[in-house]
Write a structure and sequence with these properties.
heterodimer; A: mainly alpha; MetI-like fold; 12 helices; 75% helix; 0% strand; B: alpha/beta; Rossmann fold; four-stranded antiparallel β-sheet; 9 helices; 10 strands
Chain lengths: 269, 269
Amino acid sequence: MKALLGNRLAVIGALTLAALAVVAIAARWVAPHDPLQVNLPDALLAPCRAYPLGTDQLGRDVLSRLIYGARISLLIGFIAVGIAVSIGTVVGALAGFYGGWLDAILMRFVDTMLSIPTIFLLLAIIAVIGPSIELIMVVIGLTSWMGVARLVRAEILSLKEREFVLAAHVLGASSWRVITKHLLPNAMGPVLVSATLGVGGAILSESVLSYLGLGVQPPTPSWGNILNEGRIALGVAWWLTLAPGLCILTTVLAFNLLGEGIRERLSRQ
Amino acid sequence: MTEALLDAREVSKTYHRRAGVFQRDAGTIRAVDQVTLSLTAGDTLGLVGESGCGKTTLAKILVGLVAPTAGAVFIRGQSAARASRSKRLSLKRAVQFVFQDPMNSLNPRMTVEETLSEPLAIHGLAHGDARRQRVRELLARVQLPLTHAGRLPRELSGGERQRVGMARALAVDPEVLICDEPIASLDVSVGAQILELLRGLCAQQRTALLFISHDLRAVASLCHRVAVMKEGRLIESGPTEALLTHPRHPYTELLIRAATLDLDTPTSK
């Protein structure tokens, strides 16, 4: 933690994310207006004192919608990555530890999944089943675990020849014990980096889906669908697209800076 | 004659070297070639030979980390490879291993106490307070201060780590202790302390010891019997005294000469 503080960019990333998390959690008290309150007389107002980031076509406050949208984006980011890390860790650990035909089958499956462009897979699944926040989280998770699986497998392959792992075998430790006590705890560093970067990626995926109208459905605000609704009024109300765009950019950048910071810290150890 | 605790009968391990795109057979390497040896209670056997002669592979075969391509290993007359699950655990308990590299042989994320508790947990030997008490006894046996219990491996010196490695092996009260180059990566003075500790432990418990080293002097000071290994074969073995004074094989003579030359360096005069 102390060395992480030495990396200025990583600190900026972490502070940005902390601030964002606080705002998202305290949305009810922080947001100046109700994000769903339609107020047609105030439609498409430019940023002013009452509406710091202006209003949309229905007169809703853009700042409040962004603040509530942060909740959805972060929630989707973390849960999707949670699902991806869980699946990736299990698949990678089994493939790396047991090797042989199990490894061959699992890794060919990973290759197959990787060969399908994620965004098309996402679109196809959601187009068939229909959009909902839960489904988006699950589907993003199910389409982004392959990198983690490869990472964990590679770590396990190198760790399993280490003497402390052999020592556990000599003592008669079960495979379960060797994997959970000796291999995984020592393999999780790179996974943490990948997960941090992955949250940014998942937020981006959600934005893409919502932008295309297949993500979070109106009136629930998410950064992607605010951007989508603003697109129609791009010529007359620049703030409708610029504000959510900057939110997505800042958040994804912050996760990347933090992830790179952790990676650097781990590689120096 | 007393029953052999550990008995290796004509064990061999051959590796096939593969080359080229089509993995054609590029010859076989005999890492261990028809080695027979046995240990009874209170025995101390030194195994000497140059690097790469198959000592470590032989040791790994003896503790079941490597399966021999021919021959078999018997513990108290029983084959661990063919035993049932529960039987195998008790056979494994009888033969324990101390690794060469103390940097590598301890899990970097487990404290000394956790490392020493693990063998007790695997074999269900002590629980709760009794387990903590047992860990304290083990620390005392390898002459480590009790305050080290909460430390991580990176907070210990090389010699201290090696003592923890020994304590871990001793935790299950093994009948045979196999030490693979336990002092090779330590300072001379620290190595001497470890040797002294091993001597004391074996004398107290009548634990049989297989001490593997390329250092003939260390072997001579610790072991009653010596076996010489070269290119995977045991070329000579016998009581230490007789073997050192009347070597029958020219290679043994060479090893002895190398060790005595070392003794005659100006610093020792």
